[in-house]
Amino acid sequence: MYLTLVMVPLVLAYWSPQPGAAGFAWDFAMTLGYAGVAMMGVQFVLTARFKRACAPFGIDVIYFFHRYLALAMLALIVLHALIASGLDPGAVGPLDPRRAAPAISIGRLALILIAALLVSSLWRKRLGIEYDRWRRVHAVMAILALLLAVIHVDMAARMLNSPGKRLAWTLLSLAWLGLIVHVRLFRPWRLRRRPFRVCAVHAEHGRSVSLNLEPVGHAGFDYLPGQFAWLSLGNSPFALREHPFSLASSPTRPGTITFTIKALGDFSTAVARCKPGTTAYVDGPYGAFSCDSHPTASGLVFIAGGVGIAPIISMLRALADRNDSRPLWLFYGNRLWQHTLFREELQALGTRLNLHLVHILGEPEADWRGERGLLRPDILVRHLPDQRTGLHYFICGPQPMIQVAECALKAMTVPLRHLHSEIFDLA
Q: What is the pTM of this model?
């Protein structure tokens, strides 16, 4: 589907009648440009959060696809500019925008914006850019870059040489802009009509807080245990101040939803100061990280690090409420015992479930008798059964931990289709 959407502008450009031949190299350069602009438009499709389109993969995977395809998009557009400049410097004109043709200057400005978008996105944390500020600037720059690219094509494209082609290009451009309206205006308007209210705030271990939210004037939404949603607190949904968090509550306990959030940034730190009665907006649910997606699994293995336990506690609560009798394993890594989230509840769940609980502490007390250090392959081998290929594995935590767990399980000949990892950081 992605390739089809990217090919649409190429089909329009090369549909007869054709202008005079300019040679393969020039046509190839123009093709790269059309493909790059098409990829810009499709980037908005990938981030539009269409639930049916994202459901088979999980929106975290879609967002990573969006991130890496942006690199390919930039490469195509840069090659388009370099090849065109090398073939016909006169047609491209000087770098000085005062002397270059307006269409060329507009295209170059679009290219600069795209490069700035990628640099600020891939190295946001290294550059020290705060998430909310980056998100707002990212949205404005992306919209402006697309508008400039569309104008550049409309002014400079030699292949839009018929009224039919130009009409088709206009309609396609309007479709891309319609996506922007949907994401930035229609969805926030719809969320504003379905608010939530913070009804309770609970301090948890490890500088974490659990927020209980109740729907106001509506029935809330259905979700699977382990899914996540975008949360906005005390702000209008139009303010672009929403953050993705896993739902820690279970759908078997309707009426409220719960987010457990650790103080890691400006927004998550402010959550601890949130008061009951605060208005909240929740866009969800999203994600394919759920035990309910694999009902025939003979057993389930959960591997969590820190606050990565949030979607897993949601699944464990649901399994306990359903009286699930399958064998379960939980490998839970933390630096300190006093920072271990839900440690009392996990112990209690062990009496309701067939749960083998393995705590791994990085800095344990001297009398600690459990596993020590970081998650290692030998810990998994020691506690998992010999017959483990029929189990399904759910991994959530810091990226290094996910990589260790995935590599270890692959070495243990676990089928790849049985590995399910929740990407911890979407931006």
A: 0.86
Please indicate, yes or no, if residue 427 is contained in any of the structural domains.
no
* Half-sphere exposure in the Cβ direction for 131 (13 Å, CA): 14
Gap between the Cα atoms of 220 and 192, Å rounded: 13
| Residue 181 structure tokens | 């309206």
Looking at the predicted structure, is the pLDDT value of residue 157 above 60? Answer: yes
- Cβ atoms of 205 and 343 within 8 Å: the answer is yes
> What is the CATH classification number for the domain harbouring 250?
2.40.30.10
pLDDT digits (tens, 9 = 90+) for 320-374: 999 999 999 999 999 999 999 999 999 999 999 999 999 999 999 999 999 999 9
Q: Return d(Cα 227, Cα 246) in angstroms, integer.
A: 6
Tally the domains of the chain: 3
Three-state DSSP class for residue 361: strand
Side-chain-facing half-sphere of 288: CA atoms under 13 Å: 18
CA distance 180 to 184: 6
